[in-house]
Amino acid sequence: MLIIGIAGGTGCGKTTVVKQIIEELPKNEVVVISQDSYYNDLSHLTKEERSLVNFDHPNSIDFELLIAHVNALRNHETIDIPVYSFVEETRLAETITTAPKKVIIVEGILVLGNPELRKLFDMKIYVHADSDERLIRRLKRDMKERGHDLEKVLHRYQTAVKPMHSQFIEPSKEFADLIIPNNHYNTVAVDMVRTLIIEKLV
Ligand SMILES: Nc1ncnc2c1ncn2[C@@H]1O[C@H](COP(=O)(O)OP(=O)(O)O)[C@@H](O)[C@H]1O
Ligand SMILES: Nc1ccn([C@@H]2O[C@H](COP(=O)(O)O)[C@@H](O)[C@H]2O)c(=O)n1
């Protein structure tokens, strides 16, 4: 089994890079876990109260459950991954039952910042894109896919995303074995990571 952690600031392209890496790998050999699925359950709060939460601070993530799930997969056990709604800003009732596979990819802004989680990774990758590029991508994505308006995205960026990035995400780059520059689509780096995975699998 090979467990890979992929971090990087919001909008750097983590999800996209993961999709590109696994595109040519056998589907029955890879599981992808997104840190976003492990946002704390906030169903006890009103929608208004939820919208005030700092979703870029490590305390907003249920790391205990995420770490327990990665350990379970390592022990060849099946897990039930929570489903998170960005529109409702809380966990939904359903879960996704997921069996262990040969390659486990864990991606999210803070996955290299948590020491207990980090030590479970055989390979640690940080995806880098400049902050202006990330903000532009995030604006477009959040307005299209996550039900946010321009004002909300910019307010969150200034009050939570940017300060938390400087405090927790950017410093976690030092733990990476590999940094992928992703201001532009980086097919060479993606191919290299895929080759490394295939080599480790045989
Ligand atoms: N190298 C790139 N160049 C231009 N746009 C990109 C690039 N990588 C990702 N994107 C786009 O930016 C947005 C955010 O990418 P995503 O992979 O969701 O980032 P993350 O998971 O790191 O938040 C998406 O709309 C995606 O299509
Ligand atoms: N209800 C929420 C929860 C999280 N976010 C933002 O998501 C970002 C992390 O996800 P990426 O796919 O962009 O890595 C993080 O920066 C949170 O601010 C949100 O907007 N709403």
Tell me about this structure:
Belongs to the uridine kinase family. The protein is α/β, with parallel strands linked by helices and about 200 residues long. Helices cover about 40% and strands about 20% of the residues. The protein is built from 7 helices and 7 strands, in the order βαβααβββαβααβα. The protein is globular. It starts with a strand and ends with a helix. The model has no long low-confidence stretch (mean pLDDT about 95). The chain binds adenosine-5'-diphosphate and the ligand Nc1ccn([C@@H]2O[C@H](COP(=O)(O)O)[C@@H](O)[C@H]2O)c(=O)n1. Ligand L45E5XJ5 binds near residues 39 and 55.
For the secondary structure, the number of strands is 7
Strand content: 15-25%
Report the helical percentage. Answer: 25-40%
* Biggest sheet strand line-up: 2-5-1-6-7
Q: How would you sum up the global shape?
A: globular
CATH fold-level assignment: Rossmann fold
The largest pleated sheet is described as:
5 strands, parallel
GO molecular function: ATP binding; cytidine kinase activity; uridine kinase activity
Keywords: ATP-binding, Cytoplasm, Kinase, Nucleotide-binding, Transferase
Catalytic activity: uridine + ATP = UMP + ADP + H(+); cytidine + ATP = CMP + ADP + H(+)
Family: Belongs to the uridine kinase family.
